[in-house]
C-alpha cells in the first residue's frame, strides 16, 4: 500500500487543507492590518514591498508583472503611490522614452520601521526550526509563489469576461484590480 493511500495520509491532507485556508486568511488579515496602520490599500502595500526587493527602479509594466495587475491597474496603483509620496517617476537615462518608478527612501524607511517592529516575533518563531526545516520552508514558499502566479493567471482568464452564468454576477463582486470603485460589474450592467 502506497503512503499516499493510507488513512494517516488522507487525514494529514485534510488537516493541511484546513490549515492552509486558515494560513491564507491569517496572512490576508495581517496584510490588511499593516496596510490599515500605514493608511494604504493592501495591494499598494505589497507593491511597495515588491519594489523594495528590486535592484533598481522599474517600469510600470514590470510592476504589472510583479503584482499580476493589468498595466492600466498598475498605472493607477503607481498614481496612488506617487500621490502618497511613496514613489517617484523618472525618465530612464538610457532610453528617454521609458519612465521608471523609484521608491522614495524616506517613505520606504517608514514602512520598513513597521516591519522591523513586527519582525522580532517572526524571527523568534523561525528560530524554533532547524536548518533543514528552514530549507523546507524556503522551498515551500518558492513553490507557492510560482503556483500562485499560475493560479492568478487561471483566475484572471476565467473572470476576464464574466457572464450571468458566473455566480459572482448575481451581485456586484469585488474587483481584484480595484476598478469600478472596487466592484467588478457584470457585462450586462
Any descriptors?
mainly alpha, disordered C terminus, two-stranded antiparallel ribbon, 6 helices, 189 residues
Structural class: mainly alpha
Query: How many helices does DSSP assign?
Result: 6
Series of H and E elements: HHHHEEHHEE
List the strand order in the largest sheet. Answer: 1-2
Number of strands: 4
Distance between the termini: 55 Å
How would you characterize the largest beta sheet? Answer: 2 strands, antiparallel
Q: Return residue spans where pLDDT drops below 50 for at least 5 consecutive residues.
A: 164-189
Determine the strand fraction and express it as a percent band.
Answer: 5-15%
Query: Per the principal axes of the C-alpha atoms, what is the gross shape?
Result: globular
Look at the structure and give the mean pLDDT: 85
Taking all Cα atoms into account, the compactness measure Rg is 20 Å
Helix fraction, binned, reads 55-70%
Question: Outline of this structure?
Answer:
The protein contains six helices and four strands, in the order ααααββααββ.
Descriptive account of the structure:
- This protein has helices at residues 7-38, 42-53, 60-67, 71-83, 105-127, 131-159; strands at 87-91, 99-103, 173-174, 183-184.
- It has 189 residues and is mainly alpha-helical.
- The protein has a two-stranded antiparallel ribbon. A two-stranded antiparallel sheet has the order 3-4.
- It is globular.
